[in-house]
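Batch job 17 of 40 flagged for manual review because the log was empty.
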Amino acid sequence: MEYITSTLGNLLQQTAFLNLAEGNLIGNLVMIGVACVFLYLAIKKGFEPLLLVPIAFGMLLVNIYPDIMEEGGLLHYFFMLDEWSILPSLIFMGVGAMTDFGPLIANPKSFLLGAAAQFGIYSAYFLAIFMGFNDKAAAAISIIGGADGPTSIFLAGRLGQTNLMGPIAVAAYSYMALVPIIQPPIMKLLTTEKERRIKMEQLRPVSKLEKILFPIIVTIVVCMILPTTAPLVGMLMLGNLFKESGVVGQLAETASNAMMYIVVILLGTSVGATTSAEAFLNWDTIKIVILGLVAFAVGTAAGVFFGKLMCKITGGKVNPLIGSAGVSAVPMAARVSQKVGAEADPTNFLLMHAMGPNVAGVIGTAVAAGTFMAIFGVK
């Protein structure tokens, strides 16, 4: 009888019910609820399911079984790959292998729209300092404005802000997933019906040679000026060179499919597992979520405003809606530009025009991260 009692007692001690009751029960239940909401948005609403499903499941696991993120726990080792900036860099390689830089090459002015959208990052940096964060934490938080999860994780790790990496990454990926909800009201508010109906001229054809030279030239120019961007920009351009060279199809296929999805699983679950109730439910997290939203909204607005300026300068040849795609959420932001333009005129096709600023935004966010690293002397 004593053996049975002892065995049942041991089993009870190991259940999550008892562990939760002894810890932050309300907080854990809140985070489990948030995880379920994220799963609903991903599965039912289709909001970036490739990102939200692993993130939400990691969130669910850590708030049921916190030891999974302790040293020796499965997701602890996944998270180390985030801290070492390995997974974000591999994500960029996959993005490069999946992305067509042709629209950006055909319309180099798109770089300006991508640069304008980075204004949200720098405005959030100063606002974060005003709200009490130190300069490195402010820099890591501000990258959320680019709606770029991998770069946010990369910079937080390189600047030693691993304690904030979870809230920063979750905020960045959440805003990436919510681009179709957040951006359209801002775009419609800042543009007129006439501007939204503007049809742009078809982009010129881009030669194979141009597509091969582009990643090589960008790597040389950007990495010579800001060597700290090499892990991100270098991997982005390497992935694209795999795609465009035409001689390493197996590598391009692996980078854009098998490797990309494996990395997304590791990165998503480990990021979600940083959101334990103790780490996530505090004022700093609330401020980070607010700052991220402000940065993202300002970046979207800045891109649209610059699009309106280009529209005026070119005599109405540029639809300002494509400026909103200057944030780094590829290709979601470009699709939103297309959707809002089609609502004004169903015959208006802006997707390829919007892909130029969208791709430029990816490069611009990586450059912004490299700039912060250079400012703080981090190599």
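Reviewer: the log was empty due to a logging misconfiguration, but the result itself is present. The CA atoms of residues 166 and 271 lie 6 Å apart. Unflagging and moving on to job 18.
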